[in-house]
Amino acid sequence: MTAPTTSAAPPPAFRAASGHHYHSARLAAADRLTIAADHSAGLAAECAIKAILLDYLGSRLNDKQRPYNGDLELSSHPNPPGGKWRKQDRKEYLHEHLPDLWGQLTTILDRRRARETGVLFLRLIGHNPFHDWDVSGRYGDGTAISDADLDRHLRAAYDLLAAHEQARVLGTGALA
């Protein structure tokens, strides 16, 4: 008789995944594989943001191991007087993909009044370098991705990783 197996996936390791995707992006960029490099840079940034949200800004994993933040759910905020209840799209509180994920990060920081952040981190997230990035870019022919776009995406992914790592190593729980 064999032991029963479970089909449950292990919890996501966003910090480790971010580093892996970033390293893959750098290797692909060095070989002029623009589509793969830009896609991996975006995934690196997504994973770094999710790690930051989970480790420092109060996000949690739901029962399907998907990150979310209750502060973004409408049910956690009272309706304005006379306001109508509306069904909330899960994309508004589940942490999924860029560029929307960047907006969730800034919204959560705004609501928390940036208690856990320093000036450098606020400057980093002040402008979304992935505003024109889409996960479906991997299906393109690469002509829509300029060298400047790729450089900007790689730099932002690195900066997010560095911010998380600095907070982790210093043990302050604050994003400098």
Residue share in helices? 40-55%
Strand content: under 5%
Largest sheet: 2 strands, antiparallel
- Choose one word for the global shape: globular
DSSP summary, beta strand count: 2
- Stretches where pLDDT is under 50 for at least 5 consecutive residues are none
Written as H for each helix and E for each strand, in order along the chain, the element string is HHEEHHH
The number of helices is: 5
Strand order of the largest sheet: 1-2
Outline the structure in words.
The longest helix has 24 residues, at 147-170. The protein is mainly α and 176 residues long. The chain has a two-stranded antiparallel ribbon. The protein is built from 5 helices and 2 strands, in the order H-H-E-E-H-H-H. The protein has helices at 14-30, 34-56, 100-111, 119-125, 147-170, and strands at 60-61, 67-68. The model has no long low-confidence stretch (mean pLDDT 85). A hairpin with a 5-residue loop joins strand 1 and strand 2 (67-68). The protein is globular and about 55 Å long. Helix 1 runs antiparallel to helix 5 (147-170) and helix 2 (34-56) packs parallel to helix 5. Helix content is 47%, strand content 2%. Residues 67-87 are annotated as: Disordered.
Detail the topology: elements first, then pairings.
Elements: H1 14-30, H2 34-56, E1 60-61, E2 67-68, H3 100-111, H4 119-125, H5 147-170
Antiparallel strand pairs: 1-2
Helix pairs in contact: 1-2, 1-5, 2-5
Characteristic key phrases:
mainly alpha, about 180 residues
